[in-house]
Design brief:
Elements: H1 3-19, H2 21-34, H3 38-41, E1 42-46, E2 52-57, H4 65-80, E3 83-88, H5 102-105, H6 116-125, E4 128-134, H7 142-150, E5 164-170, H8 180-193, E6 196-203, H9 218-230
Parallel strand pairs: 2-3, 2-4, 4-5, 5-6
Antiparallel strand pairs: 1-3
The structure holds flavin mononucleotide.
Flavin mononucleotide is lined by residues 59, 61, 64-67, 134-138, 170-173, 178, 206, 208-209, 214.
């Protein structure tokens, strides 16, 4: 047993006694996710012969509502024959833009060396960018916002590579205004960056993290799947 595994197993044993095994497993599990290697944070799902689709899933929880909605959409994409790569932003460390301006002076390279460096080449080659987010305080997650901010590095004179863009969202509420802010932002973004809106799906009335088992309506998953098939 190497040092890392020895320490982990010692911690697990002690932690089990002190906290109960479920709690300590959860703690270590989360720690491992934060420092996840590339293979756990970036999933090359299919190498198809149609469009190249980059899916950026920004919920912090895998297999939650947003992840499941995203996977239903991806199922459609895969069946349609697209190339699909899925990025779990919640498993990466991605800072917001520092506004240092280095990128605009030095060959459009971002000065921040974090998970975004693995995403830039995937973004460069994709035709379609799919952004998935739970609604947090009436807008997208800070993780997704950081990803968007960091695209500034690749802009030239405020011009961005042309992309088709898709937004997938989930929320607890399902009122007329529930998704107003992120939708408005998504459309402003498309306009400003010269992207083409290629789909929006907003799934309201999802059960949140206050319940152990999250619930998203089956009809949302079915609709997202059909949307993926139609891209
Ligand atoms: C920090 C936080 C803020 C939230 N803010 C809102 C909100 O403003 N409106 C809303 O309807 N739901 C809100 N929710 C509920 C989530 O959007 C909803 O449960 C979502 O489906 C969770 O997605 P996930 O399972 O992928 O994490 C919030 C949840 C959290 C944790």
């Amino acid at each position: 047993m190497d040092r890392k595994h020895f320490l982990k197993s010692a911690l697990l044993t002690t932690g089990s006694l002190l906290l109960g095994s479920a709690a300590i497993y959860r703690y270590l599990g989360n720690r491992e996710t934060a420092d996840a290697p590339l293979s756990q944070a970036i999933d090359k799902i299919q190498d198809g012969n149609m469009k190249k689709v980059l899916v950026v899933m920004s919920a912090g929880t895998k297999r939650g509502n947003t992840d499941r909605l995203t996977d239903a959409y991806i199922k459609g994409l895969v069946e349609r024959g697209h190339s699909v790569t899925k990025v779990y932003l919640g498993s990466m460390k991605i800072e917001g833009c520092r506004g240092c301006g280095v990128c605009q002076r030095l060959a459009h390279q971002c000065a921040i060396k974090d998970g975004m460096q693995d995403i830039y080449p995937l973004f460069a080659e994709c035709d379609t960018i799919v952004m998935a987010s739970p609604l947090y305080f009436w807008t997208i997650t800070s993780r997704l916002k950081s990803f968007i901010e960091r695209l500034y590095a690749i802009s030239t004179d405020d011009k961005y590579p042309k992309k088709d863009a898709v937004l997938l969202m989930t929320a607890g509420d399902d009122e007329d205004a529930t998704f107003e802010q992120p939708l408005r932002y998504f459309r402003l973004l498309n306009q400003a960056l010269g992207w083409n809106e290629a789909g929006v799906y907003c799934a309201g009335d999802c059960t949140g993290c206050e319940k152990l088992a999250r619930e998203i309506g089956k009809e949302h998953l079915e609709n997202a799947y059909k949307m993926g098939l139609a891209l």
